[in-house]
Amino acid sequence: VHVVDCTLSRNMMNGALLGGSVGSIQGWRFEGCTLAGNGQYGIWASPGPGELGAVAWGANSLVGNTLGEVGGRGRLDGWQPGLSFRPGDECAAWSEDC
What we know:
The structure is a single chain. It contains no helices and ten strands. It has strands spanning 2-4, 7-9, 16-19, 29-31, 34-36, 41-46, 54-57, 61-63, 68-71, 75-77. A four-stranded parallel beta sheet has the order 1-4-7-10, with no helix packed on it. It has a three-stranded parallel beta sheet with strand order 2-5-8, with no helix packed on it. It has a three-stranded parallel beta sheet with strand order 3-6-9, with no helix packed on it. The model has no long low-confidence stretch (mean pLDDT 83).
C-alpha cells in the first residue's frame, strides 16, 4: 500500500495504525504525508505475529501529536526522530508556470 500526499490530523487516537491484529505492516510506504495534532502518536506500527517487516518512510511531517511521533514495535525505514518539517521552517517552492 502506497500512501502519498495525505493529511491525517486531529484524530482522537493515532493518526495511522498499522499492523498488529489488523494485519501486516510489510509493503506499506508513506511519502509526502502530514500526521499532526493527533491524540496519541502520529503513527503506530506493530508487526503481526512472527513478522519482521518494516514500513518504508519517505519525506513526511510528524508534528504536535500528544504522545509523540511514532509508537509500537514496528520499524519505519527512513524515519529519524525529530526530523520533519515544522511551522516556521525554511522550505523551497517551485512553479511549473514560470
